[in-house]
Amino acid sequence: MSVIEAEPYDFELSPSRAAMLIIDMQRDFLEPGGFGDALGNDVTLLRKTIAPTRRLLDAARRAGLTIIHTREGHRADLADLPPAKKARGRFATGIGDAGPMGRILVRGEPGHDIIPELYPLRGEPVIDKPGKGAFHATDLDAILKNLGIAQLIVCGVTTEVCVNTSVREANDRGYDCLVVSDCVGSYFPEFQEMGLRMIKAQGGIFGWVAPSEAVIAALPST
Ligand code: C5J
Questions:
Q1: Has residue 190 been placed in a domain?
Q2: Is 211 part of any domain?
Q3: Which CATH number is 15's domain given?
C-alpha cells in the first residue's frame, strides 16, 4: 500500500488491485486533421495530456499495473448505434459517415484507433464501447472483477464526457477512482475545471483527483 497525495484527501494505492484505465485516446479526438479538429475544436487542449499520460503509462507498466484502454465506436453496420445518438447534434457529417480519417467512430477505421504515442501493448485489454461510459454494453466490469481490481487510475478524453461518465459508472459499481488531472483533457477549459471539481466535491463524491507526478511517485519503481 502506498499513499498518493490527492484531493479531497490522500488515496491509498494498492498496486496489485489497481488498474490504469485510459479512456478514448483515439486519433479522431486528438490528431490534427481528425474529426474533432474538423468540427473546429482546438485539439492542442487534448494533446497536452499525451506526454504526462505516456510518462504515467511507462511507470505503471514498470510497476506491473494492469493497463486497460477504451475506444468509443460502433460496428461497421451501425447496428449498435442508437438512432438518438446518430441524430444528436444534427451534424451534416456524423457517426458512420466518411470523415477525414475514415468512417467516423466506426471500429477498424484509422480515426477510431488509439494514437501511436499510447498504443496498447500486446496483452493489454482494449474495450470497444458504443457509449460514453466504459461499462455500458462492455465486458469491462467482468474483466476487472476477474483480475481482482478494486481501484482505477483514470486518464483520457474528454474530461466531462467519457471520463466523467465512466468514473460515475465505476463509482456505482464499487470501484475507487483516482482521476489524473493532467492526463485528462477537454476541448473546453471551463469543462476541464468543472469536470475535475465535480469528481472530488463533497468529500470525493465520485473519487479522487491528483496530478501525474504524485501518482508516479507512489508507484513501485521495480
Ligand atoms: C469522449 C465524446 N470520448 N466527447 N467522447 O469523450 O464524444
A1: yes
A2: yes
A3: 3.40.50.850
Q: Which residue has the cell 470523415?
A: 99
Instruction: Please report whether residue 91 resides in a domain.
Output: no
Number of domain units in the chain: 1
Residue nearest ligand 1's atom 1 by CA: 162
Other C-beta atoms closer than 10 Å to the C-beta of 116 total: 8
Bond from prior residue into 8 cis (ω within 30 degrees of 0): yes
Tell me the C-alpha to C-alpha distance, in Å, between residue 136 and each of 14, 21, 47, 162, 196. 26, 15, 26, 11, 22
Query: Is the pTM value of this prediction over 0.85?
Result: yes
Instruction: Look up 24 and say whether it is catalytic.
Output: yes
Catalytic residue among 28, 37, 113, 162: 162
pLDDT at 222 over 80: no
The domain in which residue 44 lies consists of 2-73+117-218
